[in-house]
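Handout, section B. The chain below has 78 residues.
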Amino acid sequence: YLRWDRPTEARVALDAALALTGELGSPYYKAAVLAGLADVAERMGDLNMARRHRDQAYQIYEQSGDPRATDLAPRLQE
């Protein structure tokens, strides 16, 4: 949806995915969804929300030793 400049639809889809990852107890996918929500929030101009989502994703990746934590680290300062 973001590629087509439709951030509202992206947020709705990702919010549903976030709920599902919570039900399934899948931290890896939850982190991926949170990273996507950060991109959506950033596109919509909500930089505080983008930081929160990115930080949550980073924490999950870091705890699991996932290399994506390293990819997200520089973006935490934005």
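Note. The CA atoms of residues 41 and 60 lie 19 Å apart. Compare this with the example in section A.
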